[in-house]
Amino acid sequence: MSPKPQKRWSSAPSLVEGVPGRITLPLPAKAVQAWALDERGQCKTRLSIQADAPSRAVVAIGPQSQTLWYEVMVE
User: N or C: which end of the chain has fewer CB within 10 A?
Assistant: First the structure.
């Protein structure tokens, strides 16, 4: 039996740590946009998209974005 999902993160303030990472997509960099989101899911900061190869886009995430949530859009 699975435990019930928690709806609360305990008491404030929550201590979280952003870790560096890379999201690689099999798409041209010009077709990808990404944003760091705030705690309400609103776009906060647009992220830079790098081309790892002609048809591979790379989005770098990490503590510099000061968030746990991201949005990636493909056009």
Answer: N
Q: Along the 75 residues of the chain, how does pLDDT read in single tens digits?
A: 666 666 666 777 878 888 999 999 999 999 999 999 998 999 999 999 999 999 999 999 999 999 999 999 999
b/e 45-71 (16+ beta carbons within 10 angstroms → b): eebebeeeeeeebbbebeeebebeebe
Of 22, 73, 71, 23, the C-alpha closest to 43 is 71
Beta strands at 32-37 and 49-53: parallel, antiparallel or unpaired: unpaired
